[in-house]
Amino acid sequence: MIPPEQNADFVCAMEDVLEVYHRPYDPQRPVVCIDEASKQLLKETRVPIPAAPGRPATTDYEYERNGTANLFMMFEPLAGQRHVKVTERRTALDYAYVIRGVGRRALRCGGEGCAGARQPQYP
After folding, report:
1. What separation in angstroms does the CA of 82 have from each of 30, 36, 104, 112, 113?
2. For residue 25, what pLDDT is reported?
3. In 3D, which of 123, 97, 107 has the Cα closest to residue 34?
4. CB atoms within 10 A of CB 72
5. How many helices (H) and strands (E) does the chain have?
6. Are 62 and 46 in contact (CB under 8 A)?
7. Rounded CA gap, 10 and 41, in Å?
8. Are the CB atoms for 23 and 31 separated by under 8 Å?
9. Which residue, of 7, 29, 80, 108, has the greatest Cβ tally within 10 A?
10. What is the pTM of this model?
11. How do residues 38-59 score in pLDDT, each as one tens digit?
């Protein structure tokens, strides 16, 4: 929830973001969207039963926790390209490496780039 006293600032910032998405495609200034998600990795505890004629495949509801993985998703909507980087942890350093990689790819194309990312929250 946005506090009422910050509504105008939020709307102004959001208009700037939306303006970026209305730009025509320019390979010298790629628009790159970045997001992340933490996923729990699960391991089956029993072998699933494959489908048979007249019976769907069955998987037991019981599972074993098998750690977590962090996914960084980078998407260039106007070029139709996407990339996912998987890391073991969710740290500010991992995020910095991802941003550095996006910047290097933009510079390799000879452009300056424009990255849009939601504000990450790191401990």
Report:
1. 12, 13, 16, 19, 15
2. 87
3. 97
4. 23
5. 2, 4
6. yes
7. 36
8. yes
9. 29
10. 0.66
11. 999 999 999 999 999 999 999 8
Residues in the chain where the model's pLDDT stays below 70? 1-2, 105-123
Q: Which residue has the tokens 């909507």?
A: 77
Element (H, E) at 21: helix 7-21
Q: How many residues does the chain have?
A: 123
Angle at 14 between CA 2 and CA 31, to 5 degrees: 140
Identify the residue whose tokens are 């007249």: 54
**Which tokens go with 13?**
């910032």
* Residue 24 one-letter amino acid: P
Q: Which residues pair with 23 in a beta bridge?
A: none
Residue 88: CB atoms within 10 Å: 10
